[in-house]
Amino acid sequence: MSERDEYVKKMKAQIDGWNADIERWEAKAREAQAGARAEYDRQLQGLRQHRDQAMYQLTLLQGAAASASADLMRGADEAWTRMREAFEKAGAHFQKK
Asked: Which sequence spans correspond to the domains of the chain?
């Protein structure tokens, strides 16, 4: 398996984990009081946007020629870093509630 294929596999697994977290937090948001629900919804919307950007980078990487893979992996790493930071922040927020 190539480095790119392993990278894609790892990123797909991470996205699956993030999707599971989002689903769990969406359920928590549905049960929250109106004021807290609005905050949950705002946090979830941001997470979905970051996730979608990470998925877009992954799609680009999957379709890239081998010569462009290194550049695209750097871009994907940046998207993943932003996503991870957003999830850590949201996770801390959701754990408090």
From this structure: 3-9+36-96
